[in-house]
Design brief:
- The protein has 109 residues and is α+β, with helices and mostly antiparallel strands.
- It is 36% helix and 21% strand.
- The protein has 3 helices and 4 strands, in the order αβββαβα.
- It has a 4-stranded mixed sheet, with helices on both faces.
- The protein is globular, with a radius of gyration of 13 Å.
C-alpha cells in the first residue's frame, strides 16, 4: 500500500477537510470511512525559492508520515495534505515526526 495521496484527491481533502497548524507544517485532514492512510505534500515556491529546499521539505514530510504509518501512530481512515512552513528549513525527520504526532493528537470531531 502506498502512502501517497493521488493528485485527484487533493481537491476533495481541501473541500471536505479541516486544517490544523503545527510548528513546522500545516495539515489538512479529511475523515473518509474505509480510506487508506495517505498523504500529499505541498511546498510553495514563495516560501522556498530554491528547488533543492522544496524537494528536501517534501522528502522530510513524506518520510515522517511513512514512518508514523508503519509504527501505527497515524490515525486510521484519514487522508492528509501537509503544507511546509518556512520553519521546516534545516530540521531533521525526527522533528517533523514530532510535529505530526502533535497534529495527530488534535481532536477529530
Amino acid at each position: 500500500m502506498s502512502t501517497r495521496l493521488p493528485g485527484l484527491k487533493y481537491r476533495q481533502v481541501f473541500d471536505l477537510g479541516r486544517s490544523v497548524k503545527g510548528r513546522l507544517i500545516i495539515a489538512w485532514r479529511c475523515h473518509i470511512q474505509d480510506a487508506d492512510q495517505q498523504a500529499g505534500v505541498v511546498v510553495s515556491k514563495k516560501t522556498f525559492h530554491e528547488a533543492v529546499d522544496r524537494n528536501r521539505a517534501k522528502r522530510l514530510m513524506r518520510e515522517a508520515f511513512r514512518l508514523l504509518v508503519a509504527s501505527g501512530e497515524a490515525p486510521a481512515n484519514f487522508q492528509w495534505i501537509f503544507i511546509a512552513r518556512h520553519s521546516i528549513y534545516g530540521k531533521k525527520c525526527v522533528d517533523v515526526m514530532a510535529d505530526m504526532r502533535k497534529i495527530f493528537g488534535v481532536s477529530y470531531e
